[in-house]
Specification:
With 352 residues, this protein is of the alpha/beta class. The chain is built from eleven helices and 18 strands. The strands form four sheets. Strands 3, 5, 6, 9, 10, 17 and 18 form a seven-stranded mixed sheet that branches. The longest helix is centred in the middle third of the chain and has 13 residues, at 153-165. It is globular. The mean pLDDT is 96. The structure holds zinc ion (2 copies). One zinc ion binds next to α2. The site of one zinc ion has 6 residues, from α4.
């Protein structure tokens, strides 16, 4: 089969490799569509998480390995002891790799497993004709949701999970800093959990139309002062809930300053550089700091939102590539055109 194999920094090769075989409890899936995630871009550009020398803590794997964890496909083979699934089922999956034994796994919070890994980082992933996944991590794609749309469910689950961690969202004024796919997942998560008003802050106007179409307010933070804007927007009040979806000291600082006393701040951004955190501003008014890591069962909710027409995934797909064009038109292109793109998909199979 054809696969995108990571060998090192800026060295992803499209190669012919052997098809994987499902072990006990696993299924083999023919991949139709796969999504390029921010983490895949990090693997390409560095700093990477794919183990190069020290074997992965859960799987024991080291590079080279097949990248990618966001995908949709159809089951083509079942391993031993797989119940409830059959060949031909349309599926997507949670790409986390977990031990199943630690305290977090046993309590159902497998997204914070002690040995957590991801497909495409700790084991062979989905940028290939076939991928093998644990049946326990599968989600059925509902009628009315296409394979193409379903490939976007995984990143959308991140914002739904983060929202669920913070409890009651009803009537809350929310600010989302960062309008990439993760910021948008937070936007949708908050919106459909009952938030009252949502302001999305980003640089440039790429997302204004989209956010406004879904009833949100958009601010270009390169032109206006976010803190001032939030005070006006909130009639002098700061935000009840703020999501930081960039991962930079500057936006973390902004996020702390626009969270109201007693309000909640959710950090979803992944930081390239260790930030200095203004703990005094957090502490002086009992602002509550949350963090979120991937998701557990929220892909099901994302697929449900798509089925109900609450999220039109088509509008989030801004570009399509193939495995053959992945490096040039996917990774290299995204380095220069990040903000314009929400989700770049790789068309791998034949299904729409
Ligand atoms: Zn992802
Ligand atoms: Zn575990």
């Amino acid at each position: 089969m054809k696969a995108a194999v990571w060998h090192g920094y800026k060295d992803v090769r499209i190669e012919e490799v052997a098809e994987p075989t499902p072990k006990k409890g696993q299924v083999k899936i023919a991949v139709d569509w796969a999504g390029i995630c921010g983490t895949d871009r990090h693997e390409y550009e560095g700093p990477n998480f794919i183990p190069v020398k020290k074997p992965h803590r859960l799987t024991g794997r080291v590079a080279p390995l097949i990248i990618g964890h966001e995908f949709s496909g159809r089951i083509v083979e079942l391993g031993e002891d797989v119940d409830g699934w059959k060949v031909g089922d349309r599926v997507t999956a949670n790409g986390s790799l977990t031990c199943g034994k630690c305290e977090a796994c046993r309590s159902g919070r497998y997204n914070i497993c002690q040995k957590l890994g991801f497909l495409g980082v700790g084991d062979d992933g989905a940028f290939a004709n076939y991928v093998v996944v644990e049946a326990a991590k599968l989600f059925r794609i509902p009628e009315g949701v296409s394979q193409r749309e379903a490939a976007v469910a995984e990143p959308l689950a991140c914002g739904i999970h983060a929202t669920n961690l913070m409890g009651d969202m009803n009537g809350k004024d929310v600010v989302v800093i960062g309008p990439g796919i993760i910021g948008l997942s937070a936007f949708f998560g908050a919106k459909y959990a009952g938030a009252s008003r949502i302001l999305v802050s980003g640089i440039g106007d790429y997302r204004r139309e989209l956010v406004e179409r879904y009833g949100g307010t958009y601010i270009d933070s390169s032109k206006a002062d976010l803190e001032e804007y939030v005070r006006t927007w909130g009639d002098g009040r700061l935000a009840d809930i703020v999501y930081e979806c960039i991962g930079a000291e500057k936006t973390l600082d902004q996020a702390i300053r626009i969270t109201k006393p007693g309000g909640k701040l959710m950090v979803m951004g992944v930081f390239g550089k260790k930030p200095t955190v203004d703990m005094n501003t957090l502490q002086e008014a009992e602002r509550i700091l949350y963090t979120s890591q991937a998701h557990v069962n929220e892909i099901a909710t994302a697929l449900e939102y798509m089925k109900e027409g609450k999220i039109r995934a088509d509008e989030l797909i801004t570009k399509e590539v193939t495995l053959d064009t992945l490096t040039e038109e996917g990774f290299e292109y995204l380095i220069g055109h990040g903000p314009e793109n929400i989700k770049v998909l790789i068309k791998i199979g034949e299904e729409k």
